Amino acid sequence: EKLKKLEEAKIIFVVGGPGSGKGTQCEKIVQKFGFTHLSSGDLLRDEVKSGSDMGDALNQMMQKGELVPNEIVLDLIKEAMLDKVDESNGFLIDGYPRKVEQGLEFEKKIGEPEIVLFVDASDDTMKERLLKRGETSGRVDDNEQSILNRIDTFHKATEPVIDHYDKQNKLRKVDSERAPDLVFEDIEKILNDVTI
Ligand code: B4P
């Protein structure tokens, strides 16, 4: 029965480069619209913290700025969605898909997104934000070399995702070079159209 509910759930993908502001905007979206926020990165970091056999390997891949295998991410997302589906009025899937194939697999196993929100910032801006966050975050991947690798992975693997959903008229792009509140004003307008 939960699986059936999941098929009917409203889904929004949030994509963007590392440090573009995905997580930041998702918090604001949850405050205003009450969706269930699932960040692929957070789910993976929780898995690392849990000390599972898989954790060490995941941590190394994340530190290198590489993508982890999709079966792992997709299983974690699906499990978390099933957990929340009874109380949810829609899901914000943050940081996924990072490759076109990830999107296709998700659609096959779970469902299609209503829209794909693309949080857009330049490489320089992303790098600067992540270096700043790295001063306090304690994240293994918030150092200069990891950041450069993550930006590279974004261009190679994730940019095709943006074209893919643009062709389906599902892409909604917001300019994330501005202060978080201003970026959110644009997102509000986009989501008001989706939710009504
Ligand atoms: P993520 O956890 O998704 O990390 P991220 O891309 O850096 O985004 P995050 O949400 O943390 O940062 P945000 O832009 O909000 O991924 C980490 C790793 O996990 C990946 O490299 C990969 O290895 C793995 N992974 C995740 N998903 C995967 C998948 N689907 N498949 C395979 N592997 C996967 O913000 C960054 C900083 O900018 C913050 O400090 C924030 O305060 C600041 N900021 C945000 N907006 C701002 C603004 N408008 N102005 C000024 N500062 C701003």
Write the layout of secondary structure elements.
Blueprint lengths: L1 H7 L2 E6 L5 H12 L2 E4 H10 L3 H11 L6 H15 L6 E4 L5 H10 L5 E6 L2 H12 L9 H24 L3 E5 L4 H16 L1
Parallel strand pairs: 1-3, 1-4, 2-3, 4-5
Helix pairs in contact: 2-9, 3-4, 7-8
The chain binds BIS(adenosine)-5'-tetraphosphate (B4P).
BIS(adenosine)-5'-tetraphosphate binds next to helix 2, helix 3, helix 4, helix 7 and helix 9.
Bound molecules: BIS(adenosine)-5'-tetraphosphate
Which range does the strand content fall in?
A: 5-15%
Report the major sheet.
5 strands, parallel
Radius of gyration from the CA trace? 16 Å
Helix content: 55-70%
Structural class, by secondary structure, is alpha/beta
Can you tell me the residue ranges where pLDDT is under 50 for at least 5 consecutive residues?
Answer: none
Cα shape: globular
Mean pLDDT: 96
SSE string: HEHEHHHEHEHHEH
Task: Please state how the strands of the largest beta sheet are arranged side by side.
Answer: 2-3-1-4-5
The total count of helices amounts to 9
Number of strands: 5
What's the quick description here?
The chain is 60% helix and 13% strand. It has 196 residues and is α/β, with parallel strands linked by helices.
What do these coordinates show?
The protein has helices at 2-8, 22-33, 40-49, 53-63, 70-84, 100-109, 123-134, 144-167, 180-195, and strands at 11-16, 36-39, 91-94, 115-120, 171-175. With 196 residues, the protein is α/β, with parallel strands linked by helices. It is globular and about 45 Å long. The model has no long low-confidence stretch (mean pLDDT 96). The structure holds BIS(adenosine)-5'-tetraphosphate (B4P). BIS(adenosine)-5'-tetraphosphate binds at residues 18-24, 39-41, 44, 61-62, 65-68, 73, 95-96, 98, 102, 129-130, 133, 141, 150, 176, 179-180, 183.
